[in-house]
Amino acid sequence: MHDDRAFDRGAAADVWRRTLSQIPTVFGRLVYLASLRDPNTGRYEHFGLAQMFGEDEADRALRTSHIDAFNQWLSFTLEQQMQDLDRYLAGLHRDPRTVLETWSRVQPYRNLIPASAPEAERRLYLADLETLLEVLRSEYGVACPDPDA
Q1: Is residue 63 part of a domain?
Q2: Nearest CA to 66 among 105, 90, 30?
Q3: What is the pLDDT of residues 10-30, one digit of tens each?
């Protein structure tokens, strides 16, 4: 018999060490972790982790890592968030104007919030991110989409 808490720490540590530590920005970690969440079930899926630890443990480790990254983002000042987001955008190797125009229309950043995040944290995240995007749109000369279009 094994200790579930020790097992949990092992899987979470493995996720962090092998994958998340390779992603240079907290925003990038949010994007990556949210991409592992099945939109139909809310479960996190990672084949390699599931092979090593089982599906439930992989889900738990990824869910915890997602919440941790989200909380780390929320703990940043707006200036730190802007620096992190700038680094993320630079790492995409895409035209920032195109990215910002797409984000303004599609708002993919809304899907980066962990399902268990309290409403106040959700509102804070969205308010901060929309403020940052407004600044970036202004810097890059990207018009806001017409809400009536």
Answers
A1: yes
A2: 30
A3: 766 777 777 888 999 999 999
**How far from each other are the two terminal CA atoms of the chain, in whole angstroms?**
60
Asked, for residue 146, whether it belongs to a domain, the answer is no
Task: Return phi, psi of residue 40, to 5°.
Answer: -90, -30
Distances (CA, A) of 131 to 2, 82, 101, 139, 145: 47, 10, 15, 13, 15
Residues 125 and 119: their CA atoms lie apart, in Å, by 10
| pTM recorded for the entire structure | 0.86
pLDDT digit string, tens, across residues 76-125: 999 999 999 999 999 999 999 999 999 999 999 999 999 999 999 999 99
- In the Cβ-directed half-sphere of 111, how many Cα atoms lie within 13 Å? 15
Asked if residue 111 lies in contact with residue 31, where contact means CB atoms within 8 angstroms, the answer is: no
**Residue 147 covered by a domain:** no
Residue range of the domain that includes 121: 4-140
CB 84 within 8 A of CB 76: yes
List, as one string, the DSSP characters of 18-53: HTGGGS-SHHHHHHHHHHTB-TTT--B--HHHHHHH
Point out which residues pair with 37 in neighbouring strands.
44
- Please give the sequence-ordered ranges of beta strands (E in DSSP) within 76-122, or none if there are none: none
